Amino acid sequence: MLKLVARGLTNQQIAGTLALTEQAVSVAVAALLEHLGLVERAQLVVAAYESGLVTPGTVTQQ
């Protein structure tokens, strides 16, 4: 899910991609933020890039 957030997908788009409800995605994103001690979604994007989980120009894969 973090890869999808980092690629700029909305909760609705992530829900469709992973066959989840938007509410489930929202809860999961909130849990990621809390687990990583972050406050906003943009920080998840930075964390994903800094960790090497995603790199510019790569194709999103689940």
Q: TL;DR of this structure?
A:
This protein is mainly alpha-helical.
Would you kindly provide a written description of the structure presented here, covering whatever features stand out?
The protein has 4 helices and no strands. With 62 residues, it is an all-alpha fold. Helix 2 packs across helix 3 (22-36). The longest helix has 15 residues, at 22-36. It is globular, with a radius of gyration of 11 Å. The termini are close together.
Give the key terms:
single chain, 62 residues, mainly alpha, 4 helices, 63% helix, globular
Largest sheet: none
Q: How many DSSP-defined strands?
A: 0
3D shape: globular
pLDDT < 50 stretches: none
Secondary-structure content class:
mainly alpha
Number of continuous helical runs: 4
Strand content: under 5%
Distance between the termini: 8 Å
From N to C, what is the helix and strand string?
HHHH
State the helical fraction: 55-70%
Overall pLDDT score = 92
Q: Output the radius of gyration.
A: 11 Å
What's the topology here?
Elements: H1 2-6, H2 11-18, H3 22-36, H4 41-51
